[in-house]
Amino acid sequence: MERVGTVERVSAQGGSRRLVVDASFDAPLTAGESVALNGVCLTVERADARSFEVVAVRETLEATTLGALDRGSRVNLERALRVGQPLGGHWLQGHVDATAPIRGVLRDAGQTRLHVEIPEPLRRYVARKGSIALDGVSLTIAAWSDPLAEIALVPFTLEHTVASVYAPGIRVNVEVDLIARYLERLIEARGTGAFEAGAAGRAP
Questions:
Q1: Is the dihedral of CA 163, 169, 171, 177 positive or negative?
Q2: Does the pLDDT value for residue 87 go beyond 60?
Q3: Of 73, 163, 201, 202, which residue is most buried, by most CB within 10 angstroms?
Q4: What pLDDT digit, counting tens, does each position of 156-204 carry?
Q5: Which fold has domain 3-79?
Q6: What confidence tens digit (pLDDT) does each residue in 48-78 have?
Q7: With contact defined as beta carbons under 8 Å apart, do 172 and 66 qualify?
Q8: pLDDT of residue 33
Q9: Could you tell me the residue ranges of all domains in the chain?
């Protein structure tokens, strides 16, 4: 997650929504570039030095929290990772798996902990000390008590993302760990024999 921007304007286009976001990057965005809004990968249609426009189609609006954005909403922003750039968290694709409600926010002695109710289909990818992304921010799961993931937020995250406004009832975009998904797929392939069949079919 690079920075926080503010939605300047929202307009309907059939079943889609056009969003104009106020945000300046070190290097301006360009048309056709990918940018993630609250963890949702979108394509820049227009951009200048201080703002850019994207369109979220119906499927995206139904599968994420972008449909709830309005003028003045603050959003997490991140450009696509380029070769040679440092990877500060875990791999994210910008493909949101589901939305999830925040069930509790505990603030005590300078610490903030979220309790997020993970949807049933995603719970098999959750593990204590594992990775998860909320609104495009790479985070570590401090504790897991099905169906609640407990996530500790450090002060820097609170200051530099939209996490500062999280409260019970707010829904967040969830993307599970990509490596966990691939491991599951490999295990499934071995179980069906597809893995061995594929290996046997290759030339030595």
A1: positive
A2: no
A3: 163
A4: 999 999 999 999 999 999 999 877 777 888 888 887 766 555 555 554 4
A5: Elongation Factor Tu (Ef-tu); domain 3 (2.40.30)
A6: 989 999 999 999 999 999 999 999 999 999 9
A7: no
A8: 94
A9: 3-79, 98-183
Please give the CATH number for the structural domain made up of 98-183.
2.40.30.20
Residue 38, token pair as written in the block:
């609250």
Which residues, in sequence order, are bridge partners of residue 184? none
CA gap 1, 17 in Å, rounded = 23
Which tokens go with 46?
């227009």
Q: Return the structure tokens found at 10.
A: 């929202």
